[in-house]
Design brief:
The protein has about 190 residues and is α+β, with helices and mostly antiparallel strands. The chain is built from 7 helices and 6 strands. It has a 4-stranded antiparallel sheet, sandwiched between helices. The chain has a two-stranded parallel ribbon with strand order 1-6. A hairpin with a 2-residue loop joins β2 and β3.
Length: about 190
């Protein structure tokens, strides 16, 4: 992407670990106390050390907010979302935030999710990846969904459809009801 003249690059993992911890230390640490603020990082997620937060008398919400505000000022970072924000529900006026929220699972996601700018990736040094599991940017969310078989109307369709519609499509093909948790129906106009 960089060779094509795009604003692209890598956000060092140190930004999300060492530098982020230093920011929390400078913002919240009691005088003279050197605390371990970050438990771990994984891809674009930061897991806060909740024992440290409790010891320092800092609420998770305050730490998330401080970290998010600092992160978006770092090169290559588009947005950052705290767990508290993601748990509140739909982000009507923030499409990137809403896509991030929909990929968030409270049982396994971290406390702060980072969204890199388009064509940027987290990693560097020995942690250099050639690709990721995707971002919420249009070039990463435009994935073809191919459906064929008896009863399917032939042709190319251009409207947005989620791969989550596959559950309803498969159920229709098997002539069984769609799963109770299926949020998306068979796309309109797909069937003959």
């Amino acid at each position: 992407a960089k060779a094509e003249g795009k604003d692209a690059g890598r956000v060092s993992g140190n930004v999300m670990s060492t530098q982020a911890a230093a920011h929390l230390q400078a913002t919240f640490a009691p005088k003279g106390a050197k605390l371990s603020w970050i438990e771990k990082t994984a891809e674009e997620w930061i897991y806060l050390n909740h024992g440290t937060l409790k010891q320092a008398g800092v609420t998770p919400e305050a730490a998330e907010k401080a970290l998010c505000e600092w992160l978006v000022k770092q090169p290559g970072i588009h947005a950052a979302y705290g767990r508290t924000t993601l748990l509140k529900g739909p982000m009507v006026n923030d499409p990137i935030g809403e896509l991030t929220r929909r990929s968030f699972h409270p049982d396994c996601a971290g406390d702060v999710g980072v969204v890199v700018k388009p064509y940027w990736m987290v990693g560097g040094g020995s942690n250099t990846f050639k690709a990721t599991h995707g971002t919420p940017h249009p070039y990463d969310t435009h994935v073809p969904l191919v459906v064929f078989g008896p009863g399917i109307k032939a042709g190319v369709r251009q409207e947005r459809v989620t791969p989550l519609a596959a559950a309803a499509i498969m159920a229709w093909g098997l002539n069984v009801p769609a799963p109770a948790g299926a949020e998306y129906p068979v796309p309109e106009g797909l069937l003959k």
